[in-house]
Amino acid sequence: MSAILDYYGLSFQPFPQRLNDVDKKYESNDLKQTSAILRYALPEMGISLICGDTGRGVSYAVYCATESLSRANYTVRCMPVCHICPRDFYREACRVVGTPSFGRSRQAMITALRQGALELKKQGKPLVLVLDNAQNLPELVLWDLVTLVSGDFGLENLMMLILCGTKDLKYRIQQTENQNLEENLVAHYTLKGLSEQETPAYVLNRLEMAGGKREMVSEDVLNALYDISCRGSIRELNNVMRTALLVGTQANRPVIDMAVLRSAVEHRKL
């Protein structure tokens, strides 16, 4: 890694396996739309759905949007969802939110989470809970979500719950059995991924943030990246460009040209 950074004069890896640098983000249309959707939904709290194909940067878009929220005005918590039973899900949710759960039944933990959210709302710091990889939510939990969020008699939602995941989650919610959940979504957005125009802009933005120069990547490579590598997938684009920097370093090629790109793509196929 250090050899790549030194060779191209970069201060950090511009194309990491996982994006988490909000201050260096590229303002794609997806990031703008996600932030706008969540700002729109904040006054009502309730349940929002942000989804997209794998690799489109769904988690990162939601992370960027919630990081912009003032911690003096909101209590922001994120909980990655794995394949677990409803009881374990609620036990982990209580831990993340900070509500005691020892020895509680599923229903008791739902009540505890509601009470915890109500207290935070009374303190002027309402809960914003992100469920990442929410496509893994157990069916029973999906049924519970409206009850978890809604205030007594359906008045004033207790928290903002952001369901963040793949399109599989959207399809599950659209099923007739989950009609109540679909009807109670305050907002939803499906990420499109980087467009053909955004792809070269994203690459140049990431390179320049790391101290690189525009001349590091040839124009034909910039024009070909969308079709050759990513088709909107930020993850695949990062993978290809990270490999291209490695190939360029090993071949002593200061410019990422088509030969380097093709070699990187072939290397990815091995």
Written description of the protein model:
The chain is of the alpha/beta class and about 270 residues long. It has helices spanning about 1-10, 30-40, 60-65, 85-95, 105-120, 140-150, 165-175, 180-185, 200-210, 220-230, 235-250, 260-270, and strands at about 45-50, 75-80, 125-130, 160-165, 185-190. It has a five-stranded parallel sheet with strand order 2-3-4-1-5, with helices on both faces. Helix 4 packs parallel to helix 5. The two termini are about 20 Å apart. The mean pLDDT is about 90.
Observed structural traits:
single chain, about 270 residues, alpha/beta, five-stranded parallel β-sheet, about 50% helix
Strand portion: 5-15%
> Biggest β-sheet, characterized?
5 strands, parallel
Order of helices and strands: HHEHEHHEHEHHEHHHH
| Number of helical regions | 12
The shape is elongated
Name the average pLDDT: 90
| Radius of gyration, whole Å | 21 Å
Helix/strand structural class: alpha/beta
Widest sheet, order of strands: 2-3-4-1-5
Give the low-confidence spans.
Answer: none
Span between termini: 20 Å
